[in-house]
From TrEMBL:
Keywords: Glycosidase, Hydrolase. InterPro entries: Inosine/uridine_hydrolase_dom (IPR001910), IUNH (IPR023186), Ribo_hydro-like (IPR036452). It comes from the Bacteria. Pfam families: IU_nuc_hydro. Residues 10-249 form the Inosine/uridine-preferring nucleoside hydrolase domain. GO terms for molecular function: purine nucleosidase activity. This is Nucleoside hydrolase. One of its GO terms (biological process) is purine nucleoside catabolic process. One of its GO terms (cellular component) is cytosol.
Length: 297
């Protein structure tokens, strides 16, 4: 009798140097024994902050893998820029990794967490449209909430960096779990908690807290002592999907300004809330356990 695999096959596609929360999600995934991380893909985050954003993300991924001693984890470059339109893929080793893993018939379901734009998933679908027939779930941190938008609300960042890619993916019919802005902002931690629970956990913990505070100093005008770990719910959903409060909705398309438009008849599972207590405490405990196993920590 065959046994159910004790690990879940996953890929993480991350704009790791965009802000300061991707790092926490990457580390959480790599510290989780039930996640078989088949690869980490470096994603771009537009050109507003850097002309080499994808390569910046790759450097951050390599830094984290080095700090964790995880040279066994495959890392690939994704697209260096957004799709030029909804019909033209931007090919990359990252898109080819997605196709390779999704096409495996011997390894069970695949979940791909997108912590930035959907460029690499859209490219994979354009290169191989039959991927929609595979047992693949796209988990996307991105897009606006589904209720009435606040006056002056701008386009959600991950969507803004490649609206065409989002439309390709949402139109395709592939299975999507979406964590919109209204949900992912509810995963905040304060400096005091980070100083107590993360910073003492060796070189890695100290780095995670330091880079978060440094990022806040560069982008925040007013006083601040917190940050939303907005990418971490994607890892939470891979570990514990029952921790999410879902509602199935008609899958929308998106205007150039990020507004919701009528879709193409598919559905999307929208995670409207995630269990932040479980999510954050699981991360803190795994990081503390990992640090305790390191000599001299």
């Amino acid at each position: 009798m065959s046994r159910t695999p004790r690990t879940r096959r996953v890929i993480i596609d991350t704009d790791a140097k965009n802000e300061a929360d991707d790092q926490f999600a990457i580390v959480h995934a790599l510290l989780s024994e039930t996640l078989d991380v088949r690869g980490i893909i470096a994603a771009h985050f537009g050109t507003q902050r850097s002309a080499t954003s994808m390569l910046d993300s790759r450097a951050e991924i390599d830094l984290l893998l080095g700090m964790m001693g995880r040279d066994d984890v495959r890392a690939e470059n994704g697209a260096a820029e957004a799709l030029p339109d909804e019909d033209t893929p931007v090919d990359s080793p990252g898109a080819r990794l997605i196709i390779e893993e999704a096409r495996r018939a011997d390894a069970g379901p695949l979940q791909i967490a997108f912590l930035g734009p959907l460029t690499d998933m859209a490219a994979a679908l354009l290169l191989d449209p039959a991927l929609v027939e595979t047992d693949t779930t796209v988990i996307w941190i991105g897009g606006p909430g589904y209720e009435v938008r606040e006056p002056g609300e701008g386009t959600e960042f991950n969507l803004r960096n490649d609206v065409a890619a989002a439309n390709v993916v949402f139109r395709s019919g592939i299975r999507i779990w979406q964590v919109p802005r209204t949900a992912y902002v509810m995963s905040s931690v304060g400096y005091a908690e980070l100083d107590e629970k993360v910073a003492p956990c060796g070189e890695l913990g100290a780095y995670l807290v330091r880079q978060l505070k440094e990022f806040n100093e560069t982008v925040q005008d007013g006083p601040i002592e917190h940050r939303a770990l907005g990418d971490s719910p994607a890892v939470g959903l891979m570990l514990n999907p029952l921790g999410g409060l879902f509602r199935t909705r008609p899958a929308p398309l998106f205007s150039a300004e990020g507004a919701l438009l009528p879709g193409a008849g598919h559905t999307v599972r929208v995670c409207e809330m995630y269990d932040a207590r479980y999510l954050l405490e699981d991360f803190f405990a795994k990081l503390r356990r990992s640090a305790a196993a390191q000599p001299g920590v």
